[in-house]
Specification:
Layout (H helix, E strand, L loop, with lengths): L2 H10 L7 H11 L14 H14 L13 H11 L3 H22 L9 H12 L4 H21 L6 H21 L2 H7 L15 H5 L7
Length: 216
């Protein structure tokens, strides 16, 4: 998929589109960041630590870099801070809060600073499980009603479980998009051909790219 289209799709996880140059600027500003130097702009320090752990649970280091090695956590924090409108920032903060409250209760711990991967992973996995079509449809309607009420009245209430499902699934979707559109993954892992060459109309992906998706 062309990178600008992929970047626009990140906004769709929150129900709206955003100008691709804005997102491209964020991606480029993240490229030089070092993990140890990172200070969150949108999330608190402890929330940033949770985010750092969650994206590496999703995309751990294997024969390819982990999510944090290509600064997915940095991108997501900057995306939330610089791109999301106020109502979506509030929604993201609420989802993070409801999610971490659940983790704290399950782990029987009192602060985010105490949480580690063993505490976060089982709760994260629970909210990433496939929902039935009926449940998913009910959640979508509840979210639609929530944002409608926020727009009309300036505030609304959403079921805690729906908040957690929404947070986990939005984080997964945005993390994958961010990972695939990072400079290193785009150029070194995916099939990358910045200057198109010969057009081959009928050939399978395995032959053309050794099974890799196209970066651009």
């Amino acid at each position: 998929m062309e990178r600008r289209v992929a970047l626009k799709n990140m906004g769709l996880a929150f129900g709206y589109t955003i100008a691709a140059p804005t997102l491209l600027g964020i991606v480029q500003s993240c490229n030089g960041k070092k993990v140890l130097d990172w200070t969150p702009e949108f999330f608190s320090k402890d929330e940033g630590t949770v985010l750092h752990t969650l994206v590496d649970i999703l995309l751990p280091k294997t024969d390819t870099p982990s999510a944090t090695e290509v600064n997915v956590h940095v991108f997501l924090d900057k995306f939330a801070n610089e791109v999301l409108p106020k109502e979506h920032q509030d929604f993201l903060k609420m989802g993070m809060g409801k999610f971490t409250d659940k983790v704290l209760a399950s782990a029987q711990k009192e602060s985010l600073a105490e949480l580690d991967e063993e505490d976060l992973e089982p709760v994260f996995a629970t909210y990433l499980k496939k929902r039935t079509d009926e449940v998913e449809e009910a959640h979508e309607k509840a979210l639609e009603a929530y944002f409608g009420a926020v727009e009309e009245n300036g505030g609304a209430v959403l079921d805690d479980e729906i908040s957690r499902y929404s947070f986990a699934n939005s984080l997964r979707d945005l993390s994958i998009w961010s990972y695939k559109t990072s400079e290193y993954v785009g150029e070194e892992i995916l099939a990358y051909l910045p200057v198109p060459g010969e057009y081959i109309g009928c050939e399978d992906e395995q032959t053309l790219t050794q099974g890799k998706a196209w970066s651009l």
